[in-house]
Design a protein that fits this description.
Number of domains: 3
Order of helices and strands: HHHHHHHHHHHEHHHEHHHHHHHH
Helix content: 55-70%
InterPro entries: DUF1631 (IPR012434)
Coiled coil: 473-510
Strand order of the largest sheet: 1-2
Number of strands: 2
Distance between the termini: 69 Å
Strand content: under 5%
Radius of gyration: 31 Å
Protein name: DUF1631 domain-containing protein
Keywords: Coiled coil
Structural class: mainly alpha
Region (Disordered): 218-238
Largest sheet: 2 strands, parallel
Length: 564
């Protein structure tokens, strides 16, 4: 038997936070279900008083639920625990598959089972509609702390879909009449609605507080567009800053060593400087904070490496496997420290004596800035290990470009910046689950391979690649938006159909509950009138004169039967 060992996919995986989430939401949800069972008997007893001939079914349901209270609770908790284990193992459980849609192959399911499945889906839909905003944010938080997983309504282990499946499984094996079974689910929906919302709200507040205290990156939505050369000063560019602009903004607003420092203005620099003086001050201060032992003055007589020597060392690094990123990242220290160490080693390999030379402080600042930028990108993006290594191959070429082109940090429309934005955005959250996503990742791989292989010292390569990849990526995003729009329309249509089926089923149940009917009339109501009501409800979105007329028709048939 194969054992899957849970390993963190991303640095964002946080087992301690996952344990806190389980305590905040899963345990109280199980307790709320126990409280629901306490109130269930009373609710069923009230329904039995108005059930007429079906009164005995409700009384038997009360007895059955009381006798099997422990197994019912165990099955409810068991499904939630199984869904949570799937999340912790990195393989989120699908609620749709768990419910067994299509699991019976070509075998038709009993009508009662179909009605129960529809009822639990309606319950999940009601919870989802009521707490949609909270759930969307929780899905992003949960996906981040679970290691960069894609979490949605179908895979959230404590979301409405899995709660519905847990409720369905809880009462499997309990002998209940169809009306009583549906009543149990309806009572559960009424009981859990507010309690579930309170748990979602409490969890969202707790995670937001933890994110602020631990400086976790806030979950971000995917950008609607990448600023292009003619959009640098536009409103869209302000709403969707590129990674370098985001990095400067986050750093300016950071805490700790940088608190109280004026906001960085990367445009305030002289013509010869790669970086403005205020930014160099911040970089040197941050380096002293990270590496207190490494901030020692160079021994007297050591020669500063020239920019040409640093660029040559970076070019040598670029020819190494993975463009030197494996060696840089393999260092136990930060990317900035690893990059500087590998540059010194590459310079030594080119014949520079490390004992008599050292990096120019200005060049150290430029290298540190690029390394810190990539550290932020790799931390804040949802990337697999392979995607992290792939994007990391751009570190050395971008560092070399920073040494050669002082406009990299001051021009919002720099082609290398735009290309970096596009490549990161194409990988962020892209699990390669579809053929289109796989093709996009293949294109990203080809672009990065081209940069590593062909970038010498001329930035024109980035302009060409940005134009080609930007056009391709824009087409991909348009196709994704169209597919998402179609999926949303299909989902809304399915919701309308389910609502219409629910209205028709409820109308039929109410009229059948009035008393026994002749078989012919019962057949007419169930096989002819109910589909007619469903179609009227679907056309009128659950209301309107057509639905009123259809309901009146059924009442007229029963009235004529009573008069006869």
């Amino acid at each position: 038997m194969t054992q899957f060992i849970s390993t963190p996919v991303l640095p964002s995986r946080n087992p301690q936070l996952l344990d806190q989430v389980r305590e905040i939401v899963l345990v109280p949800l199980a307790d709320a279900f126990v409280q629901f069972q306490d109130a269930l008997a009373e609710a069923l007893f009230r329904l039995a008083a108005d059930a007429g001939p079906a009164q005995n079914d409700f009384l038997e349901a009360i007895q059955a639920v009381r006798q099997q209270r422990e197994p019912i609770t165990a099955r409810f908790r068991g499904h939630l625990a199984k869904a949570w284990q799937g999340l912790e193992s990195g393989r989120p459980l699908s609620a749709d598959r768990s419910l067994g849609r299509g699991a019976a192959g070509l075998t038709l399911l009993p009508e009662q089972d179909l009605e129960v499945r529809l009822a639990v889906r309606n319950l999940a839909g009601a919870l989802q509609h009521q707490w949609r905003t909270e759930l969307m944010r929780l899905n992003r938080y949960l996906g981040f702390i679970a290691g960069g997983l894609r979490i949605d309504g179908d895979s959230n282990p404590f979301g409405p879909e899995h709660l519905g499946v847990a409720l369905y499984e809880a009462f499997q094996g309990v002998t209940l009449a169809p009306k009583a079974h549906l009543a149990v689910i309806k009572v559960c929906e009424q009981h859990l609605m507010e309690r579930v919302g309170q748990r979602y709200g409490a969890l969202e507040q707790a995670l937001a507080q933890v994110a602020r205290l631990r400086e976790l990156p806030q979950p971000r939505s995917r950008r609607r567009g990448i600023p292009r050369q003619d959009e640098g000063a536009g409103e869209q560019a302000a709403e969707t800053p590129d990674w370098i602009a985001r990095f400067f903004a986050d750093w300016s607003g950071g805490q700790g060593a940088l608190a109280g420092v004026e906001a960085i203005d990367v445009h305030l620099r002289s013509g010869r400087e790669l970086l403005p003086a205020s930014l160099r001050h911040l970089l040197q201060h941050a380096r002293r904070q990270r590496e207190p032992d490494g901030d020692t003055p160079a021994p007297a007589g050591q020669r500063l490496l020239s920019p040409r020597e640093v660029v040559s060392a970076l070019s040598l690094l670029q020819t190494m496997p993975a463009a030197g990123f494996d060696a840089i990242d393999g260092n136990d220290s930060s990317l900035a420290c690893g990059l500087r160490q590998q540059v010194r080693r590459a310079a030594a390999a080119l014949g520079v004596d490390p004992a008599t030379t050292c990096l120019n402080p200005d060049d150290e600042d430029a290298l540190d800035l690029v390394a810190l930028l990539f550290a932020a990108i790799l931390l804040q993006s949802h990337l697999s290990d392979a995607q992290r290594s792939l994007l990391g191959q751009l570190l050395v070429p971008m560092a070399k470009l920073a040494m050669l082109d002082g406009h990299l940090f001051v021009r919002d429309g720099h082609p290398a910046r735009r290309l970096l934005n596009l490549l990161v955005d194409a990988c962020d959250g892209n699990a390669g689950e579809t053929a289109a996503e796989q093709a996009l990742l293949g294109h990203v791989q080809a672009v990065i391979d081209t940069v590593v292989r062909d970038f010498d010292e001329h930035p024109g390569l980035f302009l060409t690649l940005e134009a080609e990849f930007g056009a391709s990526y824009e087409q991909y995003r348009r196709r994704v938006e169209i597919a998402e729009r179609r999926a949303s329309e299909l989902q809304r249509a399915e919701e309308r159909r389910e609502a219409a089926r629910s209205i028709a089923a409820q109308a039929l149940a109410e009229r059948l509950a009035r008393g026994p009917l002749p078989p012919l009339v019962e057949h007419f109501l169930g096989r002819v009138w109910q589909p007619y009501v469903q179609q009227a409800a679907l056309r009128g979105a659950g209301a309107g004169p057509a639905l009123d007329a259809a309901l009146a028709l059924g009442d007229a048939v029963l009235a004529q039967l009573g008069a006869a």
